[in-house]
């Protein structure tokens, strides 16, 4: 099974449990870092996320994962908030944060810069439109490594 299909399957196994506990599922990733696998589950709530929230969801997910056993490799389960400076993974995330300050890290450079910070104005499947110093620039999505929200504390 391809990695993407595995993550999609995990997402649909995890989402009902997260919802049942009263949270919104923001993102799921299954990655290998330094020889170890990690199943990372990011949750949200309108009142924020505490350590106790993560623990409650982690216990419920751990029970389900033990029963369903959807991952053949050994792995670590991590449940957390996506954070103030959250990565915007999907079009749903981009839609939610139109009008917000974002940072796009580029694969290569744009006018000599490897990072662009500005207001997300629009997006489609091929590009992002970001307002930087009252000028709108268009970035090809395939040249963007990472998009994150620049939070306000």
Write up what this structure looks like.
The chain has helices at residues 3-20, 51-68, 91-96; strands spanning 24-33, 36-44, 75-80, 101-110, 113-123, 127-132, 135-140, 144-149. It is of the alpha+beta class and 153 residues long. The chain has 2 domains: 3-80, GMP Synthetase, Chain A, domain 3, CATH 3.30.300.70; 91-149, SH3 type barrels. It has a 5-stranded antiparallel β-sheet. Helix 1 (3-20) packs across helix 2 (51-68). The protein is elongated and about 50 Å long. It starts with a helix and ends with a strand.
Structural class: alpha+beta
Average residue pLDDT: 93
The helix/strand order is HEEHEHEEEEE
Total count of strands: 8
Largest sheet properties: 5 strands, antiparallel
The side-by-side strand order for the widest beta sheet comes to: 7-6-5-4-8
Net shape: elongated
Counted by DSSP, the helix tally is 3
Q: What's the number of domains?
A: 2
The CATH class of the largest domain is Alpha Beta
Give the CATH superfamily of the largest domain: RimP-like superfamily, N-terminal
Rg for CA atoms: 17 Å
Low-confidence stretches: none
């Amino acid at each position: 099974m391809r990695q993407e299909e595995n993550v999609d399957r995990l997402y649909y196994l995890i989402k009902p449990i997260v919802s049942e506990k009263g949270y919104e599922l923001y993102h799921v990733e299954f990655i290998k870092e330094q020889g170890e696998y990690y199943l990372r589950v990011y949750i949200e709530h309108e009142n924020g996320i505490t350590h106790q929230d993560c623990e409650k969801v982690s216990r419920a997910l751990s029970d389900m994962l033990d029963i369903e056993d959807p991952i053949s490799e050994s792995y670590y389960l991590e449940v957390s908030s996506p954070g103030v400076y959250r990565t915007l993974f999907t079009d749903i995330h981009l839609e939610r944060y139109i009008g917000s300050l974002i940072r796009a890290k580029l694969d290569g450079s744009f006018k000599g810069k490897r990072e662009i910070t500005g207001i997300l104005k629009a997006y489609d499947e091929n590009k992002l439109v970001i307002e930087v110093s009252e000028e709108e620039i268009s970035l090809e999505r395939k040249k963007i490594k990472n998009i994150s929200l620049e939070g306000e504390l």
